[in-house]
Amino acid sequence: MQKLNALVVDASTEFRNKARALLSAAGFEVDHAETGNQGLEHAGRTRYRLVCCSDDLPDIVGSEFCGQLRAINGYDYAAVLVMTETDNARTLKQALLAGATDIFSKHDESELGIYVQRLAQRETRQLSGRVLFIEDSRVLQTIIIDLLTDMGLDVDSYTFAEKAWDAFSGGDYDLVITDIMLEGSMSGITLVRKIRRLHEDYGNVPIIATSGFDNVSRKIELFHLGVNDFVSKPIVREELRQRVFNHITSYQNFRELRAQQNSLCSLAMLDELTQLFNRHALREFAGKYLSEAYRFKRDLAMAVIDLDHFRAINEQYGFVRGDNLLAELGNWLKRHVRDVDMIARWSGEEFVLLLPGCDNHTASILMQRMQKRLTRFKPASIGITISVGVATLRHDKQDTLNSLFEMADRAMYQAKMAGRNCVRIYHAESEKPVSEILE
After folding, report:
1. In a 3-state reduction of DSSP, which class is residue 304?
2. Of 104, 92, 121, which is closest to residue 26 (Cα–Cα)?
3. Last residue in a domain, options 218, 233, 261
4. pLDDT tens, position by position, 170-188
5. Which of 147-151, 298-302, 364-368, 433-437 has the lowest mean pLDDT?
6. pLDDT band at 146, cuts 50/70/90?
7. CATH classification at residue 283
8. How many helices (H) and strands (E) in the chain?
9. Helix (H/G/I), strand (E/B), else coil: 85
10. What is the 3-state secondary structure (H, E, C) of 25-55?
């Protein structure tokens, strides 16, 4: 990791003190000089990561200072900031042409403070991640591996694209760096194409292509294939370092954001206590079940399950024990429904199941089996029974989720009225009101 040091060149003691305070707060060790020549002497003895100079030095102008500083060995990639009292377009342009990195007003300390803070964070941050690196030049391979490991990265290095592809298929990488022209039967272009054909998140990994052929049409072709960046050989270490830093941090931020979105989606769709889908998720996904049932003229049943005497359980055993009961029951229900079924906690001790491909009779049989199995399961060491109402989608009535739920819920209350611990099938009011009881 490069030492964080800075040089402030300005005739004003007041400004030097202000700049020193800003830079020290960001973690820089600060030297100062009053004239441009003194600053150049300091720079010749010590390599600084950051140099701040006035645009109006006593002996030379700021643009001339920048030009002479850049001519000193080791200052190709240092940050050189020119500080101005007044905005002068011609002076600023000359400074930028002479090699200044950026221009700041001496009257806006906050802007300068933000810049140096970000520079310090970028310079001191150690990356973590895995890089897949493919290069058939042993010398260049060694140089780049040293660079990447010095950044804190784990590197899997290969000479042939075939072996790199095998490693990629079984690994989780944050970046791929590949030469385009490689020995062996697979080129770097083929490797890029195979990675981008993957549909999983792995196919979105950033790819930096390297090549000794700095041809515009070749680079455009590579971007069409899906590379994120291109670095020409001979490779400049500092350039590659910054590109690697940017791509890995962007990709990791993207993956972190995706994970947060998935987590938020789970929180929005899952009931926290039972880890079953919640009412919102049921409404979200039920449309697919209904549309498929109507489109292919298939049966679709709904079962509404309600725990019997749950209020008494809470009063006898306490609400904590009651919550434990619901949590264990939710886990048990997930294991005892078909893969195609959807189960959700509707509210309190009430659960809803969508049962595709089931008519009233089949759905009732499934619920009957569940009741029998439940007699052998005591969540939170408490024996429970359930009342179940079943209803089937009526194609001629164009039932919705709400109307299907109303029918199943009405049948569940009929089960309660019949003494609980039973299954009732919904019948239209115009039909015989006595529903079938399956025990």
Report:
1. strand
2. 121
3. 261
4. 778 999 999 998 888 899 9
5. 433-437
6. very high
7. 3.30.70.270
8. 15, 16
9. coil
10. HCCCEEEEECCHHHHHHHHHHCCCCEEEEEC
358 CB-near residues (< 8 Å, 6+ apart):
299, 300, 301, 366, 392
Return d(Cα 411, Cα 391) in angstroms, integer.
Answer: 8
The whole-number average pLDDT for the span 35-64 is: 92
Residues 299 and 388 in one domain: yes
Which residue pairs, CB below 8 angstroms and at least 24 apart, start in 218-222? 218/180, 222/180, 222/189, 222/192
CATH code of the domain containing 183: 3.40.50.2300
Helix, strand, coil percentages, rounded to 5, for the chain: 50, 20, 30
Mean pLDDT of 188-208: 87
Read off the tokens for 118.
């970000």
Q: Cβ distance 196 to 154 under 8 Å?
A: no
CB of 414 closer than 8 Å to CB of 429: no
Exposed, middle or buried, 315 (CB in 10 Å: 0-12/13-18/19+)? Answer: exposed
Q: Is 119 exposed, middle or buried (0-12, 13-18, 19+ CB in 10 A)?
A: buried
Q: Which residues pair with 82 in a beta bridge?
A: 53, 103
Q: 102-105 and 207-211 as β-strands: parallel, antiparallel, unpaired?
A: unpaired
Mean pLDDT for the chain?
89
On whether the CB atoms of residues 155 and 147 are closer than 8 A, the answer is no
Co-location of 208 and 293 in the same domain: no
% of the chain at pLDDT higher than 90:
64
Domain boundary among 209, 226, 261: 261
Q: How many domains does the chain have?
A: 3
Domain extent for 66: 5-124
CB 439, CB 387: distance < 8 Å: no
